[in-house]
Write a structure and sequence with these properties.
The protein contains 10 helices and no strands. By secondary structure, it is an all-alpha fold. Helix 5 runs antiparallel to helix 10. The N terminus is likely disordered.
Length: 207
């Protein structure tokens, strides 16, 4: 459906129409945030991008903050789905961990750091909605825990507490997926390369 110069359709089946409209609003908000930055964008700017009234936006989101939170949730869910995909690969636990860690790094670079304005939106989410980020970290660590547990059971990794090992693996590789750390480390010659950091963390699991 063309989102340009159209009002939200009130006649489609309620659930399908609502979901479609929410996606349209979020897509438009992301475009405007990327162009102007989160701080300088208003709900009226998002409505203008869609060619609709501001009141129509407020039928679905109570504020710009809610739109921002929904966008961040969508971004984090995409990262989590990628983690689940890596965990389900028909390869060794070590290979799955490597794919997971490199995948998270690429996702952070390509999705969260592709421009200064997108980075601003991510930083605001980290500072204001840390409880959401913390829940996301817990979900990722549960995926890593299961991969490590598989590796322990298969003899790839030293037997032990998979939960603790997952937390340590996450801490050891945090500079690969924490947006602020990635932005500070990327391209620096005196920092470990992603592959080197992953190798180090996986060797620790074998020790």
């Amino acid at each position: 459906m063309d989102a340009t110069n159209t009002e939200i359709d009130n006649h489609a089946p309620e659930s399908a129409a609502r979901q479609e409209n929410v996606v349209r609003i979020l897509d438009a908000a992301e475009r405007v945030f990327r162009q102007y930055g989160y701080s300088k964008t208003t709900v009226a700017d998002i409505a203008k991008e869609l060619g609709m009234s501001t009141a129509n936006i407020y039928r679905f989101f109570g504020s710009k903050v809610e739109i921002h939170q929904a966008l961040c949730s969508r971004m984090l869910n995409a990262s989590y789905e990628m983690a689940l995909h890596c965990a389900a690969l028909p390869v060794s636990a070590e290979e799955r961990l490597r794919e997971y860690a490199m995948g998270q790094y690429r996702f952070t670079v390509e999705t969260m750091l592709d421009s200064e304005k997108v980075h601003e939106m991510v930083i605001i989410a980290i500072e204001r909605d840390w409880h959401v980020i913390d829940q996301y970290i817990d979900r990722l660590q549960s995926v890593v825990r299961d991969i490590i547990a598989d590796g322990m059971a298969a003899g790839e990794f030293k037997p032990g507490d998979a939960e603790l090992a997952a937390r340590c693996f996450g801490a050891a590789t945090s500079s690969l997926h924490h947006p602020q750390l990635v932005s500070q480390c990327i391209g620096k010659g005196n920092r470990a390369m992603p592959e080197e950091l992953i190798d180090f963390a996986i060797r620790a699991l074998r020790a």
